[in-house]
Design brief:
It is built from 13 helices and 10 strands. The chain is α/β, with parallel strands linked by helices. The protein has 2 domains: about 150 residues, 2-Layer Sandwich (Nucleotidyltransferase, domain 5); about 150 residues, Nucleotidyltransferase, domain 5 (2-Layer Sandwich), CATH 3.30.420.40. Strands 3-2-1-4-5 form a 5-stranded mixed β-sheet, sandwiched between helices. Helix 7 packs across helix 8, helix 8 runs parallel beside helix 10 and helix 11 packs antiparallel against helix 12.
Length: about 350
């Protein structure tokens, strides 16, 4: 195996997956790997870095780069879901520096990867709606707005976990007549192979069903919503309202409401392209920022981390096109299948 190092190590990591890509200065993909999810939260710190090391190791093997012998890349860009607060940045950077993978480290929240992958400009608004919900924005002058996005204690809702919990709540309350009847009374337990919403509640309470599996329910909600179920539609509208609140707040704080800012939506829930969800988001954003352009990112967000790396080294324009053509979901999934 060669001791040569890459120009860029680009990583995008969240609760559902980790992607690592090694690039040359000209934008050629030297090696790529996809790993399991990692939250990079304080309670999951060691496990997350173990998964990160394994994923980067596979990318290095594919590239013929020897990790540990010397820095593996000139610059490394990490866009991670757990980089929410300044205290998170400090915690994560300490561990990254100890790995000695690079001499130049760039750490961002994963929303920045979505934003950079979804627009040719260095400014705009990036939203990740996957297991959780988060948003960041960069103004034309380079000012930044971030959100903590660590749940109820930071005033945040939304995302697949929230959507699943709302679905179970609606199903239980519909069944015991505290709220309107809903198809979710049938559809939620059926998803878990159970007969009633209360059985789902009890199975989670007793540890027989992992609570994290509630993140599987967005497609159940969207299906019921499309079928005209009022309770499901209310949940979808609530998610749209949470996303709009973040986006509009960020744009107001950065005085971007009169610009044609790109608002890029990423994450598994957003990529489902539910028509009701997207139309409500677009209507809500444009009510405040009429020229804003809302889009859904189809490419892997690690593309945005790669672009940030190319920005960092001052790469030539053609390198960006080469990276865009090379970094695809198929390219990342294929190595994972060969493990």
């Amino acid at each position: 195996m060669s001791k040569a190092r890459a120009a860029i190590l680009a990583v995008d990591g969240g609760n559902s997956k980790l992607d690592a890509v090694l690039l040359s200065r000209g934008g050629r993909v030297l090696g790529a790997a996809r790993g399991g999810g990692a939250s990079f939260s304080p309670g999951d710190h060691e496990e997350s870095f173990a998964e990160l090391a394994a994923t980067v190791g596979r990318a290095c093997k594919a590239a013929g780069v020897r990790p540990g012998a010397s820095p593996i890349a000139e610059v490394a860009v990490f866009c991670l879901a757990g980089a929410d607060l300044p205290v998170d940045d400090r915690r994560l950077l300490r561990t990254m520096r100890s790995l000695r993978w690079t001499e130049r480290l760039v750490l961002r929240n994963d929303t920045f990867a979505v934003l950079r992958a979804g627009t040719d400009r260095p400014w705009g608004v990036g939203v990740v709606c996957g297991t959780g919900l988060n948003c960041s924005a960069v103004s034309p002058a380079g000012r930044i707005v971030r959100y903590a996005a660590i749940g109820d204690i930071s005033g945040d809702g939304g995302g697949g976990d929230w959507l699943g919990l709302q679905a179970l709540r609606a199903a239980i309350r519909g069944r015991d007549l505290r709220a309107r009847r809903t198809a979710l009374e049938r559809d939620v337990p059926a998803h878990f192979g159970l007969n009633s919403p209360n059985q789902v509640m009890q199975a989670i309470y007793l540890g027989q069903v992992d609570r994290h599996r509630l993140t599987e329910l967005p497609r159940v909600v969207f299906r019921a919503s499309k079928g005209g179920d009022a309770a499901a539609q209310e949940i979808v509208d609530g998610l749209a309202a949470e996303i709009v609140a973040m986006v509009v707040s960020a744009m107001r704080r950065l005085r971007m409401t009169q610009t044609d800012a790109d608002v890029v939506l990423g994450g598994g829930v957003a990529r489902g392209r539910d028509p009701r969800l997207l139309s409500h988001i677009e209507e809500g954003v444009r009510a405040v920022a009429p020229a804003a352009r809302v889009s859904v990112l189809d490419e892997p967000p690690v593309l945005g981390a790669a672009y940030l790396g190319l920005d960092e080294i001052g790469a030539q324009r053609r390198a960006y096109g080469q990276v865009r053509d090379a970094i695809t979901h198929d390219r990342l999934v294929a190595p994972a299948r060969r493990r």
